């Protein structure tokens, strides 16, 4: 016999179970086949449909993180039968170039990877040796000689504006890495260069190409969690991070510019436009970093939604089991995406809860509907190539890149002035002065 106090729980349990049956109601649609592939292998096969690049799962995670070639990857080019091939080049041959761009151009049936440029010519030679293309030490010389149709700009953020304008002025379409540039004025110049040369400008916010992120967006837009109310994001990585291209004053920003920009873009894509930002930041390791290595922002959206975004370069990085996660809460439910470390081939976890009166019922979503590893990077390059062929705009445009930079700068200004900053910004704040003051306070 059930005791009287457990009867409500029993009723909720039975009701909840019935709700999960596909034929019963709105929850049924969560389990319907065909939303996403139901097996990881099928998913990868689908991704590589019509492609002759054959990935194999590897346990050599470090290799992928630091961009050394995936030794088990076979990369065989062939004629796609889709017309002439795009001539692709990459400027900056560091980690992002290797993970996000070069390998995917090299394996694309409609692309010829013609050139790689890096001031450190050995970096360009290394990539050329593994993926093809001619190495150059000088990006402008490369553009003059090779006349590529499309250029990925993967140099440090302080160079994105110069390299994007240079490539556009040589008639190439540009996919620049995020963050777009340190200031909104540079973003404007990049967009103006694309406009006057009639070329496409995209910003590599690869999270937009993550199937899990797409599914979260679909659910939010479909009203599965009711009216979205607030969100929460954290991303902690790289304790005492010392990489040369990050943490320095000339980058114009630290962890919030670098990783916060990803989530600002993601929220804009999921929820809507940002109205105002307030928050604080710190330089916890001033002996290493000249810009913020910890920041917490409260971001307000035009539709009334709000989110806290916390980014740090102070965490235990890859040993941390969940270094990046976001929760979105709505009037009828909630959804959480938790990403494992980059070096981990585990799929992200997506959980959803639905409100049943005063109870919250969790729905487990098939994790194999999600990407693992770096395949969203492949989708990003595939989509950019398709955009150029079909004459449409990419997932994230220059305007999207600029909007996130505006919000990043608003956080810096908010910290400096101790108040909420509304968007749009009239102009970029003097971030150099802000960071110098912050670091001096810490050192003295
Ligand atoms: N989307 C992502 O997943 C992702 C991941 C990492 C980095 N990024 C972004 O990519 C960009 C590069 O970051 P990274 O981690 O690859 O840095 P990195 O330091 O590994 O590589 C940068 C490369 O650019 C080269 N370079 C510097 N100045 C140059 C110049 N004037 N001309 C040509 N080459 C030049 C450097 O020699 C270096 O090889 C940054 O904007 C970063 O935020 C994105």
Textual characterization of the structure:
It is a single chain. With 444 residues, the chain is α/β, with parallel strands linked by helices. 36% of the residues lie in helices and 23% in strands. It is built from 13 helices and 17 strands. The protein has helices at residues 7-20, 40-47, 61-65, 95-106, 121-131, 139-146, 160-169, 184-197, 211-221, 255-270, 375-390, 398-417, 431-443; strands at 53-54, 74-75, 86-91, 111-117, 134-136, 150-153, 173-177, 201-204, 228-238, 274-282, 294-301, 306-315, 324-330, 333-339, 349-356, 359-364, 421-422. The chain has a nine-stranded mixed beta sheet. A six-stranded parallel beta sheet has the order 5-4-3-6-7-8, sandwiched between helices. It has a two-stranded antiparallel ribbon with strand order 1-2. α7 (160-169) packs parallel to α8 and α10 packs across α12. The protein is globular, with a radius of gyration of 23 Å. Mean pLDDT is 80; it is low at 8-82 and 368-373. Nicotinamide-adenine-dinucleotide (NAD) binds next to α4.
Descriptive tags:
Dihydrodipicolinate Reductase, domain 2, 3 domains, 444 residues, globular, Rossmann fold, binds nicotinamide-adenine-dinucleotide, six-stranded parallel β-sheet
Name of the top-level CATH class of the largest domain: Alpha Beta
Q: Look at the structure and name the CATH superfamily of the largest domain.
A: Dihydrodipicolinate Reductase, domain 2
Order of helices and strands: HHEHEEHEHEHEHEHEHEHEEEEEEEHHEH
Total separate domains: 3
Radius of gyration: 23 Å
Helix fraction by DSSP (H/I, runs of at least 4): 25-40%
Tell me the strand order in the biggest sheet.
Answer: 16-15-14-13-9-12-11-10-17
Number of strands: 17
Protein structure class: alpha/beta
For this structure, the quaternary state is single chain
How far is the first residue's CA from the last residue's CA? 70 Å
What's the mean pLDDT score?
80
Largest sheet: number of strands, sense, barrel closure? 9 strands, mixed
CATH architecture of the largest domain: 2-Layer Sandwich
CATH third-tier fold name of the largest domain = Dihydrodipicolinate Reductase, domain 2
Per DSSP, the total helix count is 13
Portion in beta strands: 15-25%
**Unreliable residue stretches:** 8-82, 368-373
Bound molecules: nicotinamide-adenine-dinucleotide
Shape: globular
